[in-house]
Amino acid sequence: MSYGAMKTRRKLRCTSLSEGDQSVSSTPSNGSPEFCVANFPTEGASLLARSFGVGRPTEDEVEELRLSDWFNPRKRPDVVTTTDWLAPVIWEGTFNRQVLEEYYGRQNLTIGLAVLATGRIADQYLELFIQSASKHFMTGYRVIFYIMVDAFYRLPNLEPGPLQTVQVLNIRGHDADDFHLMRMKNLAVHIVGHIQDEVDFLFSMMANRVFQNDFGVETLGTSVAQLHAWWYFKNTENLPYERRPGSAACIPLGQGDFYYDGTVIGGTPLEILNFIKEYLDGIMRDKENGLNSTYERHLNKYFFIHKPTKLLSPEYSWDTVLWPPAQVWLVKAARCLERAF
């Protein structure tokens, strides 16, 4: 299993998907923050459909980092640290950050963090999300924050730190009744249009969270799934999978590995694009059968079939409603409580 860089660095760019759209290119230099604003129409779905079958360009091979070089599951006998398919489950205490920093520091990485912030989500959470991410997300590495908004006036004062870039991406309000569908459709369009050429690894998160401690390179992998804080410590027989046989998201009774949190997904841009394709295909099949399952259940079906190469413990997406049990040593990011109007 390789956790190396995907490619050599390419110049950052913002690409329009239709004639007449304006884009502004921005390449960070000397570690100073830059901004890029782009306008992508959601009508780019036809381009998206044509692009799903296109592979990434040929990439440079790099020396592989062995799992045993940085990961020691025996240091956490109180929790599951390795899956049945031998993927690591990252808990505080299991990883050697110094080894990881030495390795990834030579790879010239850029990591992307995409967030869709529309309506009251932007009003309530976006500023704190960016402020905390600037302090704790992949510090010491080049980071591009992709902020997808429906209205520029909702943007708070954004102050990225050294090596950090902000790209504000305009979206249209289609699928407004299904937030996750809108989130994934827009993310796919941007991955195809430019993100795949700009970053080595990509995370997509919900804005209603605050980073509290380092969310670092120990989380990088080809396909990264987040364990759900609500369900990790529950009886696996009662996990809320889709059980209706006619649904594309169905996991039959008696089957299933873990229950994954739909608010966080990570990996290479191509792997995330593969997930979005299967998610959208699953929605269409369900619609044809008169069914409607949730985004999170489709995500769990995807990871049941396509096993993630790395799992993040609930420490990386804790819910502030819950009191952390003894197994949660250090909360990296926590969901904010819903604020009433």
TrEMBL record:
Residue ranges, annotated region (Disordered): 1-32
Key words of the record: Glycoprotein, Glycosyltransferase, Membrane, Signal-anchor, Transferase, Transmembrane, Transmembrane helix
Cellular localization per UniProt: Membrane
A GO term from the CC aspect: vesicle
Location, primary (coarse class): membrane
Gene Ontology molecular function: hexosyltransferase activity
Swiss-Prot/TrEMBL GO biological process terms: carbohydrate metabolic process
Residues annotated for an alpha-L-fucosyl-(1->2)-beta-D-galactosyl derivative binding in this entry: H228, E296, D319
Annotated catalytic residues: E296 (nucleophile)
UniProt entry tagged with the keyword DNA-binding: no
Superkingdom in the source lineage: Eukaryota
Annotated family: Belongs to the glycosyltransferase 6 family.
PANTHER family from the UniProt entry: GLYCOSYLTRANSFERASE 6 DOMAIN-CONTAINING PROTEIN 1-RELATED, GLYCOSYLTRANSFERASE-RELATED
Protein name: Glycosyltransferase 6 domain-containing protein 1 isoform X1
